[in-house]
## 1
Amino acid sequence: MTEITRDVVIIGAGAAGLTAANELKKAGLSVAVLEARDRVGGRLHTDEIEGAMLEIGGQWVSPDQDALIDAVAELGLETFSRYRDGDSVYVGPDGQSHRFTGEMFPVSPETEKVIAEITERLDAMVAEIDPDRPWAHEKAKEWDSVTWDAWLRTQTDDDEAVRNLAFATGSAMLTKPTHTFSLLQSLLMAASAGSYSHLVDADFILDKRVVGGLQQVPLLLAERLGDDVYLEQPVRTLRWDTAASGAASEGVVAIADGMTVRARWAILAVPPVLYTRISFEPPMPRLHHQMHQHISMGFVIKVHAVYDTPFWREQGQSGTAFSPYEIVHEAYDNSNHGDPRGILVGFVADQNADDVFRLSPEERRERILRSLSHYYGDAAMSPSVYYESDWGVEEWTRGAYAASFDMGGLHRYGGDMRTPVGPMRFACSDIAGAGYQHVDGAIRMGRLAASEILAEARA
């Protein structure tokens, strides 16, 4: 078994880990990045499926994501805007498709008024939330004790309004049923994007894409590290010294399948749900053992359907579609830059995702395409390429888009997620404030972990 010594060992070669490694290396510290997969990128993955380039993981860049925007520019990457010309489509409780323009769904005037009033109320609440410290709000415990669905239903008895308000943070972002997470968790999700209004505005939150795919960010970051990135090296054991800041301290020993790394510090740059895949010697503190049992991934299927042409554009449609009543709760024109083919991307989340995975692959495909046809017509039933991104089956991810707390967990444990444990630091989008659940948050957390280590190294 190979044995090396570095200043810092980083576990996970996603955007967070690679950002941290680059920051540390630029400052003069030696690093080793150990990645369990046979590729870098984590939840960013661009692949060619049957001749079509598909972004299987994260892909969008929004105007509030300063850290990601800066990284994309610094790496010399180009972006392009998501296609949005023409009508959007909404399928209501009557099962009929309705075309519309603008941000508001074509609901009754009464329902529109309710949605607008509650959105304004939520924006005011979100404005009081510090996304880095939501548990510090005076009402944090109260807001963490009521489910997102239950709170909305105390605001109105208009079911269509509740469904449309709920799915922005439920199916669309946290990808969990709205009765399984708290109002506080929902407010954090909105605060991470600047406001609830931002979160429900598809033209804002899903603004641009990177030419060639967003995975280029970690790929280019890994290139700069060269031989300091080691693939197919899942860390099985992490030995750590509680006196790691002392000059004579051992620090950490990371034992992977084919190598051992001795270092002064470690950064765990993987989702919290994967910490249990590592044997810690000595064990993590009791608080962390408890905390990690109250965090779980959501579940979403990202569906890619490729067509010879973007036929919906010829019908005057933008490709943007929503419905809290459909299996595919939202869908967009996801055609690639410079490619004449049309690509639709749709999302099936939470309970709907559970349900369709109980079907055969053939029946699941038929159900999903049928749902797309309710937005775009029968032409949607016959793609030339069909692919489902199923992150729930990924051994080194186990869900999507990111981890969140169960009821009551955020105010109880949130303040401890980033707290160092001996020589160990933590960095991933799952523990971010601004940019929570996004690549932007991963980059921010990578920079933060690196800065903490550098401050200690210089002390």
## 2
Amino acid sequence: MADFHQNGNITTLHNLRTRSLEDLTHELTVYAKTRRITLILPCLYSELEGPALENIVEELAQVPYLHRIIIGLDQADEAQFRHARKFFARLPQDHIVIWNDSPRMQVLEARLGTLGLAPQEPGKGKNVWSCIGYLLACADSAVMAIHDCDILTYDREMLARLVYPVVNPGFSYQMSKGFYPRIGSGKLNGRVTRLLVSPLLIALKRVVGDRDYLDYLRSFRYPLSGEFAMRTHVLADLRIPSDWGLEVGVLSEAWRNLAPKSVCQVEISDAYDHKHQELSPEDASRGLSRMSTDICKAIIRKLAADGTVFTPNVFRTLKATYYRSALDLLEGYHSDAKMNGLSVDRHNEEKSIELFAENILRAGHMFLENPHETPFIPTWNRVHSADPDFLTDLKGAAVADQDEFA
């Protein structure tokens, strides 16, 4: 992907293979003396037993410019939390494991519930939101970065390239989004981006017309990337989606809160692979079926909030237009894969497209039936306004869990 193409909507920062990791690391270490960097790792306990996280921790242990690492731990009991503490103990940086299921955290969640501000469902969105709350309570970092914890091909250069645009004081970027090719095991991966998001955005432009928001989303080479970095002053007013529309939701928030010139995407890897979700055609509440529906709803909600009118006829037309656009793109993906010695299962790819087409219609019906649905966790500014002591108590609970279960 070593090119220098710019489309004019957001800046794309490429890896032209002209600079070493050592040089980047040295510069970041200098900048980090005045712009502290915190990394957030939202993870499930099961990922501690997977093939990816061991290498991620080994790589991060060699990063000299990180001020703090915040690990959000989900789906863990007390014994598993103790094990997680030991697992991450090798990190030389200041770090904390936040046990999101601890009794103290449950008390705090109930406290938010009495105010009508508690997250509505568990998941990555809630995990990231809690970690951001702890970061805001610490009030000592200028930049936040987020990594997924299932990256099989992780290298610390990913972090260096991800944070550089928002750490360099000579740049004006407030947010950077990572992009990369999704390949692994001799296959072209990234089904939801390739077969849903890209053709859906093409179809939406044909059906509802030109929208600046659609051009903005289409500018991102990998909009579903879980790797992004932001200046921390943006975080207090960030609405985090509680469903599987997290990545698109964060991009939409950047569109709402930031000027396009302050958002960039940066190439962070030549080859990226992580665990793959099942398609789950038999169960719309799981896997890529649930993910695709939530992503569609997130995009539909944003367009509606900006004045786009949706009707049942619009969604039927959108489904048909998407289906044709997806099949056209599939031909290009197949050619690209063959030219690079990769495999694409045309049958399974078309099955995915058929499922995604049905889920576009399902998402549309869900939106029309409940247009006021707002699956966002309240911003930390709102929480602070309703309960000024909450952030301090959140930080205190996380530290108390660390001390008690050391």
## 3
Amino acid sequence: MVRPVTRGGPSGRSLSRRALALAAGIGLFLTSGCGLLSGSEGNEESNSGMTTINLGTMPAVDVAPLHLAEDKGYFAEEGLKINTSTIAGGAQGIPKIASGELDVTFGNWVSFIRAKQQDKVDVKAISDAYQATKGTFLLMHMPDGTVQEPAELEGKKVAVNTRANLNELTAVSALQTRGVDTSKIEFVTMDFPDMPAALERGDVAAASVIEPFISRANQLGAETLLDQASGPTANMPIAGYAATSDWVEQNSEAAAKFQRVMSKAQAEANGDRNAVEELLPDYTKIEPKTASLVTIGTYPSTLEASRLKSVVSLMENNGELPANQFEIKTMLYQAPESSE
């Protein structure tokens, strides 16, 4: 701040007014000029020229490419700064992007589709994240527990991270394929990191677990009761990254850059298991020896409606969507050709 000149007489007061006016003018120029010169889109940091994206994520194998892109500087190369915060599940991130607390969130496809179909949030998917393969999505139990066969789950508690979401729907589909009456199962919600210990204590008869928590559960003696990514749910798309349509429209350049970075990182992670293994201990807090045992699915590098239709079908078959009324293409963001 420029202080008023204290000399007496009219000339001192005049100089004081001129100094204050000059300071105000400089401040106005700096405030408005930085935005004009940097091409700010709302999340721009005027002091660095980097566009900040506040992103919700989880400590799961699914998001390894995100951390790979951060570690290798791919976001910085595109002028993006990613501020991450942890969410318990995909459904938790959706109200946060609706309120503006987050710009982009990692989440499962069931949550995104349901929010879009029910007009709760106008979700726009920006990037794919993860697709299940054999051994990546397991219903686990303790071999000395009360349940030894899927049919014995009737009347028992089964842990899922969120009700009526992908975690539960794939379990239901796999169990029904084996003739189990899933209406007789008590599904209870539990965060993934808490599931291995809950199995060991006998708090639940089984738990629907993802990596790296599958490997943790194995270390505690848990075993596979059934593979949820099998039969009709084999190769099921699991999760992606999404924002609101409003955010994408107002930050189209940032959205295109994020999509471009993730496409590159997803493809790289898909072909380099060692790179993924090295990242896991840092953000999931598992031991390096556990990371070497983790079963890793696939990281799709493109958003494809044809692949995601299998999630729509799963939801329709479980009564979560009215038949033939949801078009997945309406939810997918495709960057314009001129986004470079």
## 4
Amino acid sequence: MVTTEILNQPYSLKPEQIDFYHQNRYIKLKNVLDAETLNHFNLAISKKVNELNKEYQPLEERSTYGKAFLQLFNLWEQDKAIKELIFSKRLAKIASDLMQIEGVRLYHDQALFKEAGGGITPWHADQHYWPLSTDKTITAWIPLQATPLEMGPLEFSAGSHEILEGRELSIGDDSEVQIEKRLKVTDYKHVIEPFDAGEISYHSGWVFHRAGANTTNQMRKVMTIIYMDKHMTLKEPTNSGQINDWKTWCPGAKIGEVINSPLNPVLY
């Protein structure tokens, strides 16, 4: 029987790691999950993605966004085993500690499986889509296997949360071109590194990031968990994506009030 006790054991962050996150708005952390736990969730999440995936269109016929990954949401509602990962106190406490807040709620989870031969994930900032009132948001990016550069690991523009230009762009060809052009004339460091098995990154909602193509013959399997401050309130949406997210991930939440829907439990 696989033991997943590590999911509720604390992961100690050093003060310099918290400082690094606040300066750069991303951090990569090694040995967050052990090999047995990672393999357990690789199998469980892969099985559920295979069951739910409805994308049958050939890669070459899809848009840039469609080529980037297979995307499935809130798997915690679909599978008890996956819920154990999403509700992990270990992962949620890291999110809370990095943001230096009292605790976090779930915004939603997301499986991002980049197929063999899958294309780039264009430059973007996640919070463009979120009707959230503050920047106290963070995403745990959890590769379900070691992820070399050839597989398309996450890339970061360190500290680029300070850039306002480009925040209005939805993910796609336009965001890739315009944001890359903007980043080239700044001093923000472009960080592209492989991920070891069990290594996880955390990044804020407004930091710009992308991923390369998967040039291997294997699926790049990633699970993500998006956290927000447990006191987060809903703001007036400013684009269609935020309206959709309000209805989908924060059902019943009211503008100006704490987002306390059944889909947004406090995880830590």
